[in-house]
Each structure stands twice: as C-alpha cells, then as structure tokens.
Write a structure and sequence with these properties.
homodimer, alpha/beta, 60s Ribosomal Protein L30, Chain: A, Alpha/beta knot, 2 domains, 9 helices, 10 strands
C-alpha cells in the first residue's frame, strides 16, 4: 500500500528540480532496478508488485497493486517495480581512452541508448553540455538498462572542457571526411550534436577533425542519421581496429 | 476548425484495425509530412497550425488550433501538422543486395529507426514477421523521418521466406563469430530479433551464419545492445567494404 505522501514524493521526482532538491531519482523495470541494487547506488525505497519482490531487500520494499503502480510511474507503460535511489556525485572527468561529448542532446531515449553503447564499447566517460537532458530523468535511466552504473557522466561548459583537453577532438558533420577511410586514434574526444540542429557553431569552431558516415542510399536526400545510431557506428569504427 | 467526426476518424487511425478498415494512416511532423507529400503516397487531408500550411496543398488543408491538435495527435508531444495518407500496398519482396529481416520487433521507435538506417545505407527491402509492430503505427511513421517512402516493407511468415531464399542468411547472436573478423558478402539476409527475447528458436534453426558484435567493456555483464543500434553497426560493417 502506497500513501498519498509517497505518491506525491514519487511524482515530484519526475521533475528535475525536485530530484536535485531531494537528491533522489527513480528507476523502473526489473533489469534496471536489479543492476542498480548491485551497484554503488544506495536504495531508498522499492515499490513492487507482489510477484516481483527482490530477495534481500524485503525490508525496503512496499508491495503495491497494478493500479497503484499506474499512479507513480513516469513511463507510458508502468513496470512491475519502481525504485527510489540516491543521486551519486560523479567522479572528476577522466580524460583517457574514448570520451563521448554530448552537445545538447534532448531526447531521453537517445541519451539512455548512448550510455548503453558506451558501456558496451568500454567507454567510461561522457561529458554533457549543461543543456543536455538530465541523466536522472526516469526515461533516460530506463533506456540505459542499468548501464548508468558503469559510465561516469559529468555536466559542464563544453567550450571550457574542449579548450583545455589534450586529446584530439572529432565531430560528426554532413561534410566531414569519410570515417571508413580515416585513421582513427585509440584516444579521442567524440562530439555529437543536438537532434535537430547538430553541433552548435560555437563548439564546431573547436573541432579540428570532422568526420562523416557516408550515405549509401539516394544521395540527393539530405536526411541525417539518428544521433544514437550515429554514435553506434562511430564507436564501432573507433574500437574495431584498436 | 476540426469537426467531431473528423476527430473520431483521426483517433480511430491510432489503432491498426481501423487503419486497415479505412486504408488510411497518420503522419505527424513537418519533415515527415513533407517527405510523404513528395512521394507516391496519396494525401487525403492535412491538419496544420496556421503558420505551417504547405504551399500547393491549401485545398486539402484544414487549419487547426494548438488545442485541436492536442485532441488528434497520436504522439506525446503534438506537432504543428498532421496528415492523413492512403496506405500503399508494398511491391513484391526484392531479394537483392542486403535484405533486413525483423523477427518480432515490438517497439515503434526501434522499427522507425531501422527503416531510417536502411534508407541511409541503401537497403531497399525489409521483411517483417507478422507479429512485428505495424509499419503504419503513427510512432513508427514519425521515427522514420520520411524514410518510409524509400524502403519496401513486407509482412509474411518468416520461416517460409527464409526457407525459400537463395541469399546467405546472417543473424545476430551473443555467441556468434566476431563481425569485425568475418568475411561479409555484398548480398545477404540479415535477421534481427525481438527486443526482449532475441531471434526465436524456430528462426534460429534456419540461420547458418551467426555473428556477434564483440563487447569491449566489462565482459562479466550479460547486457545486450539495443536492436536499432545493433542494426546500425551491422549495416555499417556490411557496407563499409563493399
């Protein structure tokens, strides 16, 4: 049974300002909650359907009905469990290997998918512009499928970050050099831009190495790739030979 | 101004059974509607905010308010225009080049992204299991960003289709051969499986060439890649050398 106050708290955590105020965030879905329970993230409270209680966490679990779950979920389709976890302060930015830089990614699904890709390809660091969607947005957390526990993610002024880095900086552009024909280093900063506008002009000026994924289809069309799929292809190319 | 009967018709098209009954589907968003208007798809009616009317289509346009748009949209965030188009019967399956086969993809965003990837990489044919999400689902149409006009998509019994093909059949598996070290042909069937369960047992038996994308991160974790990002990497690999 979930109280009115609990519903109010949980629903407030759908919004960034309350997540910051309380230092808490929501995670939904068995896979995601399971990964968080096995990580450094500290559990505050679990809300589960009766069939979905996690062994060893009974004392922090409140059993809820499907109707109650509908009242607290931040997703279109409610899951069988929802956890409240404490927000962790990220470690300092690690400039080694491949570092992904996100210049104003707005879609939670894209951001979550990019975090999941980083985990797969052994990328341990993502640096986001301050305008990028909040990591602790429930839809981002869900799309990471738990990978959020294995990637360090910082928000900062991108211009300052790129200006100080010693790593070579690469970016995705429609008119860049063919990525399949380029020499790609083991260590690099890879910048990806906003879904609608791409990389901002201000950041573009700081990028020495412009790459593009060649289009094999009807070349008259000026269509672009989705940013998460472009990230997949970039990471695959940077990692396949190294 | 949009009438009650029009609202009823449009909302019915959020559901597959009414799309089939009326032979109509919805497309939302300027980019998607624009691409459909320039294609073989036949426009039935356009609903646009006053600022978003398309030149040359005024006689088929009904100007609506933002409040009215909220009543007819199938998306979480209403767009500035919504078109009703006639469903087109697909051409017969073309078995040449790369053919993508989808074994029960359920997420509209994933399916739309895969169609967009096919368009980018010059893949002209997708074959779906009958259980795969409907191509004309408004969220699929939106995620294709118009690419749906350039890819032929058929639904059929996958077992029968794969049994009769002369092309080599490849599939994605956790324990497959490293895709980066494999010889990949110019012409092939590439099979991708359901988001939760992967490729079904029945179809797996018909796949001779099992490939996998190696994991570079923490190898103890049994995480998988999202199916749309796996498709991106597969298409990139099959196309980069051919």
């Amino acid at each position: 049974m979930v109280s009115k106050n609990q519903i109010k708290l949980i629903n407030s955590l759908h919004q960034k300002k309350y997540r910051i105020e309380y230092g808490l965030f929501l995670a939904e879905g068995v896979k995601v909650v399971q990964e968080l329970l096995q990580s450094n993230f500290k559990l505050k409270q679990l809300y589960c359907l009766e069939k979905e209680v996690f062994d060893g966490f009974e004392d922090k679990t409140i059993i809820v009905s499907e109707a109650e779950m509908k009242k607290i979920t931040a997703l279109n389709t409610p899951s069988t469990c929802l956890g409240i976890f404490e927000i962790i302060k990220p470690k300092a930015i690690q400039e080694k290997g491949i570092v992904i830089v996100l210049d104003d990614i707005r879609d939670p699904g894209n951001f979550g998918t990019i975090i999941r890709l980083c985990d797969w390809f052994g990328v341990e660091q993502i640096v986001c512009s301050n305008e990028t969607v909040d990591l602790y947005n429930p839809k981002v957390i869900q799309a990471t499928m738990g990978s959020v526990t294995r990637v360090n993610i910082n928000y900062c002024n991108l211009k300052d970050f790129i200006n100080q880095t010693k790593l070579p900086v690469f970016g995705t552009f429609m008119d860049g050099e063919n990525i399949y024909k380029s020499q790609l280093p083991k260590e690099a900063i890879l910048v990806f831009g906003n879904e609608a506008n791409g990389i901002s002009k201000e950041i573009e000026l700081l990028i020495k190495n412009k790459l593009s994924i060649p289009r094999f289809g009807n070349i008259q069309k000026t269509e672009s790739l989705n940013v998460a799929t472009a990230t997949a292809i970039f990471l695959s190319e940077f990692k396949r030979n190294n």
